[in-house]
Amino acid sequence: MQNKLLVSVKILFVFLSFALSLQAQNRGSYWQQHVDYTMDVTMDVNTYQYSGTQKLIYTNNSPDTLSKVYYHLYFNAFQPGSEMDVRLQSIRDPDGRMFVDNKSRIASLGKDEMGYLKVSSLEQEGKALSYTEAGTVLEVELLEPIAPGGKTTLQMVFNGQVPVQIRRSGRNNKEGVALSMSQWYPKLAEYDFEGWHADPYIAREFHGVWGDFDVKLTLDKNYIVGGSGYLQNPQEVGHGYEAPGTQAKRVKGKMLTWHFKAPKVHDFMWAADPEYLHDTLEVADGPTLHFLYKNNPAILENWKNLQPKTALAMEFFSKHIGPYPYDQYSVVQGGDGGMEYAMSTLITGERTFGSLVGVMAHEMAHSWFQHILATNEAKHEWMDEGFTTFVSTLCMNEIMEEGKENPFENVYKSYYALANSGQEQPQTTHADRYGANFAYGISAYNKGSIFLSQLGYVIGQDKLMQTIKKYYEDFKFTHPVPNDIKRTAEKVSGLELDWYLTDWTQTTNTIDYAIKEVVADGEKTKIILDRKGLMPMPLDILVVYQDGTRETFYAPLRIMRGEKENPFPDLKRTVLPDWPWAFPTYEFTVDKPISAISGIVIDPSHLMADVNKEDNSYLSPQKPE
Ligand SMILES: [Zn+2]
Q1: What pLDDT, in 10s, does the model give residues 137-156?
Q2: Which of 42, 320, 426, 548 could form a disulfide with 218 if both were Cys (CB 3.0 to 4.6 A apart)?
Q3: CA of 364 to the centre of ligand 1 (A)
């Protein structure tokens, strides 16, 4: 019945042209560390073992003297008895990719199948350092502390074994991709205003230091490589990287060295397979897209059709978030689902076309939120997965011509299921410490996406889209924190939004409003509203009359200190007095008799995440004439 009352609310994100403040956001004494990696690595494609050297120049831009550093050794997670393995066996809803037949796949890995990353020597300025391997983290005592503003050179020899594909990286994934190489090298942990983030690799989410990567990979010459970074020696490599119309000149021998440079990134992924096909596509005024996928007849058509959609997605995100700052983006078949990396993604490729475009769009959107803004996603996973879900949902609606009036309908449905499950935890929970994967997933992706779509309800859709662009422009390459998106929205809208950030992201308070009573008052009608949930919201109320006319009423929240513009410009809107949130009920009057009213509904846009919509509408017992 409610549908009858719905105004056709087009989630029309009208992108008003507006002057962006080009001045970089000044967050007081903001600083960030810097890393420059030079790595030279040789992979044995038969044993899946590799060895290499790493020279890391670390610049300490913090105000603190550092006497220790930490590296991530992610591949050590893929060993029986690791923290990842034990967590997998103890969480109540383990990831189905990692837990099969009621058993942890990590627990049964043999010596030749497990992953490892070992450091065999580590020097600071040419002097040997002592270090301790603690699971997936290397703890290092420096000989010379690094003073504020100082630099040091750390040189390392390391070797590793690529695990059987279990999660994200690994050998021979289920679609037969030989090497999915993410989280594969000793990676310096991030040190920021909160201190060290030497998080063990247990399940998810990363936080890294930006810098320039210079990586040489030597492996069997029949393997084709794709991933992060610009290839420096395309004429020696060929495999589709050579200049169009030219032929590569390879050096003799069984091995081939690929030399990549990736500037201003915080990780480096690569994948390799002897059966990869490699296509490229230039985006107008944008980067070169690379596609690497298996020569499998069952997927070829989808992977060809994916290419123009990828160009459209790149254009969509660049237009609505901000320009993509690299000259290259690679979509590479590999891994175990979809995962975002620097200048690239690893996705599984044996999918329906819609699913293939969907995973590409989601992972590509991460380039903006996970890679270029790069919030600490272990702590604020909703700012990465959630914002990515929001923009990729809008993107899919456009590039796949889905034409959904409310593309977020299912996003909200999942959130309601979580909120009503009793298993919800606040979004301030560390990504690894949710009680259930289900609770993490919905909180990060769905509730995180609703943070933005519902913010559009609070401040107006055009203000929301301006907020996203300004947030990107002001905070790109600076690891923004929750307050930064809130302050940006406040500056764009002129509204106070602390209550919104606090309740939505730091508590499990829910929104639940109701139409309590509709009472005849002579020639007028009194409408009494009830705030049943703890989280307050401003309310749009639509009244539909028996004669088919409609009007809206808007009850701003007093603590917003202002009002949004009329979201339904075709309808007359009455701005009511502010609702002081502490008052559980609120009353207003409509200048028509109750007999003239056909129905009333709170939030006809359905963008306010009211966990119980049953009581959000009133339907007159009288039938319209
Ligand atoms: Zn994601």
Answers
A1: 999 999 999 999 999 999 99
A2: 42
A3: 9
CA distance 322 to 472: 7
Tokens of 234: 């395309």
Q: Is 524 helix (H, G, I), strand (E, B) or coil?
A: strand
CA of 334 to the centre of ligand 1 (A): 16
| Spacing, Cα 590 to ligand 1 middle (Å) | 46
Q: Is the pLDDT of residue 373 over 60?
A: yes
* Token pair of 65 as six digits: 């003297």
Helices (H), 119-243: 234-237
Q: What's the pLDDT at 18?
A: 29
Who contacts 34 (Cβ-Cβ below 8 Å, separation ≥6)? 58, 59, 61, 209, 210, 211
Cα(433)–Cα(76) distance, rounded to whole angstroms? 20
**What's the pLDDT tens digit per position in 156-200?**
999 999 999 999 999 999 999 999 999 999 999 999 999 999 999
388 CA → ligand 1 middle, Å: 6
Residue 321 region by backbone torsions, left for phi larger than 0, else alpha for psi between -120 and 50, else beta: alpha
Residue type, 107: A
SS3 263: strand
Distance 445 CA to ligand 1 centre (A): 8
| Residues 95-110 pLDDT 10s | 999 999 999 999 999 9
| Ion ligand 1 residue ranges (Cβ < 5 Å) | 385
* pTM (predicted TM-score): 0.94
Residue 493 has pLDDT above 50, yes or no: yes
- Using DSSP bridges, classify how beta strands 550-555 and 572-575 pair: parallel, antiparallel or unpaired: parallel
Q: Exposed, middle or buried, 558 (CB in 10 Å: 0-12/13-18/19+)?
A: middle
Distance between Cα 355 and ligand 1 center (Å): 14
Residue with tokens 């919104």: 500
CA of residue 67 to ligand 1 center, whole Å: 35
Phi then psi dihedrals of residue 87, to 5 deg: -65, -40
CA of 411 to the centre of ligand 1 (A): 14
Mean pLDDT of 540-550: 98
Cα of 384 vs centre of ligand 1, distance in Å, is: 7
Task: Report the C-alpha dihedral over residues 79, 84, 90, 91, rounded to 10 degrees.
Answer: -140
Tell me what the pLDDT averaged over the chain comes to: 94
Q: How far is the CA of 362 from the centre of ligand 1 (A)?
A: 6
Question: How many Å lie between the centroid of ligand 1 and the Cα of residue 41?
Answer: 29
Share of residues in the chain with pLDDT > 70 (%): 95
As a whole number of angstroms, the distance between CA 433 and CA 462 comes to 36
pLDDT band at 15 (very low <50, low <70, confident <90, very high): very low
DSSP one-letter string for 348-384? ---S-HHHHHHHHHHHHHHIIIIIII---TTT-HIII
Among residues 501, 483, 532, the alpha carbon closest in space to that of 375 is found at 483
